[in-house]
Amino acid sequence: MAQTVSLPRRPLGQTGLEVTPLCIGCSVLGSMPETFGYAVAEEQALSTIRAIFESPINFLDTAAAYGDGESERRLGIVLREYGGLPEGIVLSTKADRNLHTGEFTGPQMRRSIERSLGLLGLQQLQLVYLHDPEHITFEEAMAPGGPVEVLQQYRNEGLIAHLGIAGGPIELMSRFVETGLFEVALSHNRYTLLNTEADSFWDLCLKRGVAAINGAPYGSGMLAKGPSAYPRYLYLYADADPLLVMRARQIEALCQRYAIPLAATALQFSLRDERITSTIVGMSRPERIAETIALAQYAIPEAFWAEFSTLAERWEPISPG
Question: DSSP for 165-195?
């Protein structure tokens, strides 16, 4: 295993915060068996969070929607043990629609933020993303009294320090980044070994000075566990398109030829992109921290990347929409 003494820190865009290139995703810590296929007991989650706070990774990501507040509640338990956010830790959360009614309005953003503050036990949220805005239109999100304006008001009041945008469709996400209102942008499952739909989006973020965060580098697990063990991909963790499974098998065979873990190449594909500030990896057990750092530091020869590029050039583009 690689030594886990330290990790570099990078400026998080223009926020003034500095984060590690690895960010720990806390969705699974909210215990979402309907999404991930397994539950996570509370004590296991709390032990993992404590281990994260003592690890070299200083960046964590959660959301109001993860476990419908359960991820934030569990984080809040440990935060209270520490007497607040540990020094140097950066914690982001997301303002969400009502999961039961689908309401995605300005008033719902208020309820989401107030609940997050209460569950986390914090006086201020460092970074809040507008989450999954594809559930409404851009115009509805930007309307007077709408979700974006409400989040801006919370920032002006000091209850939110920085605003971000986190969602799926690249064209919609680009419209939000172009407004100049967001300091951080999070795209998930759009930039992996199998699909690089977000490539132009990273260019836009770089141009606009917006920190770029890449989520789900393992393609929902297929690029970590392997296509035979876990042939699932994309947003609903459904069975993957056979073409994507074929691509994954080709990459897996290339990794085997170089004696490289598939997961290491999937993770480093994101980490080695200089446009991306941090890459989110979900973790549900304390030992996953050291394992992930080891994957991030695994020596991969440039010859592998050259062969992979040649392989990928022969693929027809696939857009998940």
Answer: EEES-HHHHHHHHHTT--SEEEEESSSSSS-
Distance from first CA to last CA of the chain, Å, rounded?
38
CA dihedral (138, 144, 150, 154) in degrees, to 10, reads: 120
Each domain of the chain, given as residue ranges in start order, spans 10-313
| C-alpha neighbours within 13 Å on the C-beta side of residue 234 | 17
Distance CA 95, CA 112 (A): 6
pLDDT digits (tens, 9 = 90+) for 51-103: 999 999 999 999 999 999 999 999 999 999 999 999 999 999 999 999 999 99
One of 3.40.1160.10, 3.40.50.1820, 3.90.226.10, 3.20.20.100 is the CATH number of 10-313, namely 3.20.20.100
Cα–Cα distance for residue pair 24/26, rounded to 1 Å: 6
